[in-house]
Amino acid sequence: MDIIRVEGGHLLEGRVAVSGAKNSALKLMAATLLAPGKTTLENVPNISDVHVMGKVLKYMGATIEVLDEHTLCIDTSAVNSWEAPYELVAKMRASTAVMGPLLGRMGKAKIAMPGGCNLGARKIDMHILGLEALGVEFDTDHGYIHADASKGLVGATVTLEFASVGATENLIMAAVKAKGTTVIDNAAREPEIVDLANMLNKMGAQIAGAGTPVVTIEGVDELHPVTHRVVGDRIEAGTFIVAGALMASDAGVEVVGFSPIHLGMVIKKMEDMGIVIDRIEGGVRVHRAERIEPVDIQTLPFPGFPTDMQAQVMVLSSLADGNSIITENIFENRFMFASELVRMGANIRVESHHAMVHGVEGLSGAQVTSPDLRGGAALVVAGLIAEGYTEVSAIHHIDRGYERFVEKLRALGAQVERLTVPDFIDD
Ligand code: UD1
């Protein structure tokens, strides 16, 4: 069993460059299905979710050449299957992002039903309702969703009940090949959606309004392969900014390789907490907080406060001078992290989708378990300031989305290591 062990109390300094965004890279990889031929993706993060998406594409007949650690050449000329099998979808829900592209390319898709995950039920009903409006017929059997667009995809106006990231992306990727105009109303506005639309437009699609609540897509007959660079990972950046706010030396910590405008609400809320964040070329410089003010945060779709930064900022608020309230509006079950942080001495009471965080003087290192991707990273960050040693287990969650997390922290001066320890727990 691998764990990450952190010795708390060491100051951080220097510069960390974030990788390409996981949530963008996965969808861009899926979108290569729409353009038969060789698409080159640059700045692809070397993380396990990307490896799973690579396996999904290969299962369908694509070939992937690794040009260098962060550059993939994906050849989708020979794709001849439209199935995303259970073994892969069970490993990564985002595999469902191939549904829209498969419908656009082949007129059909067979996707294993994703089921629940540790963030709650995470339904895909909005993906299905939206695609039905475009003429797709759905059937389910033996744990699979069968989507059939053999009568042709036809543009339509779709109003999403909630600005779902995944539903917006699947609809865009199907609509680019539909006949006529599709309008997605109440579309999600995340920067990763803009990145996807930018690549699809380079491929010959006609998408207007990505990044706004109304996205309009004129269908085209074909798309062609391109070269595209994945946008920087705002959530990885935010995670390092929190680490710097807790432990930066007097010179501060520089976090680069992303656009601060993609992290606007996080930076604003951290500034409200008294943290000094300077804009620099390609990113920010963060200074250690002398005193942390309590905060009131609600997670919301972009440009609101991202649910993917909720756990990291909870670490900061756990050391604030007063009481903070953190409200999670996007996912159920996203407070499992709080009970791990309590094991490190935090004072947090969770009621329904609210966490009341009463600031404490300090955290103390403990053995804790990653509940999910962001919660796992937040526990490592908490370990940086906790007294003594923190050992974080179940770090496969962290590997899903953070490239070389331990190495990047060590380069900043953190005393952190990845260890393989014997696992005596029967499971
Ligand atoms: C994406 C991100 C994830 C991020 C989330 C919200 C990827 C791979 N993942 O997830 O990191 O936390 O956006 O910013 O890009 N919902 C439904 N029915 C649907 C679709 C969604 O009820 O058809 C619900 C979900 O259960 C969830 C909420 O809507 O409670 C938000 O989901 P969504 O925005 O779709 O997130 P994902 O695309 O799954």
Protein described:
It is built from 14 helices and 24 strands. It has 2 domains: 2-19 and 233-420, Enolpyruvate transferase domain (UDP-n-acetylglucosamine1-carboxyvinyl-transferase, Chain), CATH 3.65.10.10; 22-218, UDP-n-acetylglucosamine1-carboxyvinyl-transferase, Chain, CATH 3.65.10.10. The protein has 427 residues and is an alpha/beta fold. It has a 4-stranded mixed sheet, with helices on one face. Bound molecules: uridine-diphosphate-N-acetylglucosamine.
In short:
This protein has 14 helices and 24 strands. The protein has 427 residues and is α/β, with parallel strands linked by helices. It has two domains: 206 residues, Alpha-beta prism (UDP-n-acetylglucosamine1-carboxyvinyl-transferase, Chain); 197 residues, Alpha-beta prism (UDP-n-acetylglucosamine1-carboxyvinyl-transferase, Chain).
